[in-house]
Structure formats: C-alpha cells, structure tokens
Amino acid sequence: IWKFPYLAYGGGGGAFVVVYIILCLVLGHPVVEMETAIGRYAKTNCIDAYGVVNKKWKFVGVINVICTLMIDMYYIIVSGYVLKYAIHFLVSGNFGSDSLAFYTNFISDPIEPLIYAGVLMIITVVLLSFGITELVESVTKVIMPLLFVLLIGCGIWALFISEGAIEGLKFYLVPNWKNFTWKAVADACMQVMFSVGIGWAIFSTLGASVSDDSNIRKDSMWVTICDTTVALTAGFVIIPSVVGSGSEMTAGPSLIFLAMTDIFGKFPGGRIIGFFFFTALIFAVLSTYFTILEIPVKCLEEKCRISHRKATVITSAFIFFGGIFCSLSQGNGLLSHVSLPWWSFGSGISYYNIYDWIDCFSGYVLLPLGCLLTTVYCCKIWGYKEYEKELTKNGRDGFLSKYDKVVMTVVVPILTLIVILNCFGFIK
What is the residue-wise DSSP string for 126-145? Predict the structure, then answer.
C-alpha cells in the first residue's frame, strides 16, 4: 500500500504493473517456497537454518539479518508517519492548503516523527514481550478485509472527483513501453522482494513454525497472490487520484500520504474515513512488525541464550537508535546535509542522505543478494532431490518440474543480478 504506488507511478504505470505481475510469479513465489522449506527443515533461527546442510553457509542468514535490521530502521519511522496521520485525521483533518508542505514540515521536525515511531515501537515490544500478539492478529483479520474494501471504494470515488482521473487509470492499466527502462525492471524486482517478503529471512524464520502437514507450495502461491492483489489495488487508488488532481507530485515515499489526504479531503465524511484508513494501516504495520522484528530477535535469543523478552528489548533499542538517523536525514532535518557515498559505473561517486542510502543498500543489494544465495543454496548445496523432499513432503504435494528447476537455476539468478548490476550502473 505504501511503496508499490510510488514505484509504479515513477516506473511507467501500466508497463510496470505488467512486469510486476510476471515477477511475482517467477521471482516471488519460487523464493517463498525455497525459504519456507529451508525454515521448516531446519526448525531454528535463520542464521543456523542455512547451516543445517552446510555450516559454511550460515553467512547467508547473517546477510538476511543485516538486511532486515536496516529495513526495520526506516520502516518504523515511516510507520510513525502513519500514526501521525491517523491522529491528525481524528483531531482536525485539516492539512492546510498545501499537503506537501504539511508532510515536509512534519518529517523535518527533529522530535515529532520520533515520538510517533517510538510509540509504535513500545507497543510492539510490549505485545511481543508478553506474548499477546494474538489480539492484534485477531483484529487485523477483520480490519484488513475492510481496508481492502475501503481501498476499492476510494479508487472508484477517485475516478469521479475529477475528469483527469480516467487518464490516470489509463496510465496505470495501459502499458507504455517507450520510456520503460532497466531501472524500472530493477524497481519492480526490488518491490516484489520487499513486499512479498523474500530475501530478508521472513519465510525461513516463519517456516520454522510451519507444520509438516502444511502444503508449502499452495500456501506460497496464496501469499504471493494476496500480497500482489493488495498492491495492485493500492495503485488503482493512488495513481488515478494523483493524475486526476493535476498535482505534480513526484514519485516517492510521500505519495500515499499526499494522495490519500487529497482523496479524503473531497470524500463525504472523509475525516472519519481517513482516520479509519490510517488506523487500519497501523494494525497492518504492527502485524508486519511482529514478524520482521522477530527475525533478529530469534537469532539474538538463540545465539546468546537469553530470554525472548530481553532479546526483544535489545533488538528494538538498536533498531530505534538507527531509526533516529533515518528520521533526522529526512526533509530539512538536522542530518539532511549528511551525505553517504554511492559508487556507480560510468558516473563515479554520487551521494545519498542516510535514509535513502539505507533504503538503497538494503533493497537493491542485500535483498537480491539474499534471494540469489538462497537459490544457489537450494540448487547446489542442498540439491534438487533433498529440497524437493522437504518442499513436497516426499511427493505428497507434487514434484519439482523442469519449469521449476529452470526458474530456480536461471530466472531468479538473472533477475537478482539485474537489480544489483543496475544499482551500480552496469545496466542502464
């Protein structure tokens, strides 16, 4: 809901969507299967999971954990933005005449974004520490379908609030390949990995708790389909509303906050609906954070042999500390002038702020690297036969076809390399 619309908006609309759907099938689904099978077979934390077959391959789990920690750092900050908007809709719903200025002023504040992020972090730590996450999960199971229905309603409404929205819908649905680039392919690959959750130990961690009775192949497909459906629906809402409003919003993390503010400002009862929308997103945030925080927590707990509560507190404190730097580098923040170097072939050294550097390194280097190494691990280290035994439970849930092996051996590695090579300027 947050990241897909602005990548699709900046990546060419319909062409990006077509490529994204294909990538979900040939990149997202097979890697979900591989990671889940690794986790179920090993039944331990993600670092040790890759060492069960060969101890030398534990480094893959280490890369995954580093990637997760980096994503967690900026994810908690953006999650704080969601809480801010939910509360603001409840209190007044007035964002002034310039919603972009409101957003920029907020993220540039040195304290306020950290307060909202800190509140969400504390709630997450308390719920995880006392083992009461089931409450949030139960509420989420009700709120998420309602949020999905609301998204569809907002999309339909957006088509009627301005004549230009139809053009926005065409931009989103009709592929235009003229300006489609390798960067757009890399962005689509990265978003599949980020959104579906591959390359950063989510499924190898969750897989440790998956029972032998579960059909990993079927479950993995449902994960991919449901995630993709929500992403496509979010684009259906955001992009027509942006194009239809006539505003020249640049594609970026602010897009959903600006677009939804514009929609709810014109929506009958928009203040209440806006409050529900961003409140529902908070439950999605918490549900997600239980998982992505648990990845490093479980590693710390088992590696250092400390209690789950202590591991949760230590990990959360480390993540929030890193999040402070991400927050202060946003907008016109205190650290916005701090630039980190990034080398690109043919272009030399360029510079990103702290937030963008962490986002780029985790999303365009570590995520594809994790997927690539997972594929090598399953194909070469574990081997097709042993992997197939775990994935299908000795043939109970099907078999590895030639198509599956080609995707694992050729397609996934090529796609991950495209992301990495594009990131360093070798593919334009």
Answer: HHHHTT-HHHHHHHHHHHHH
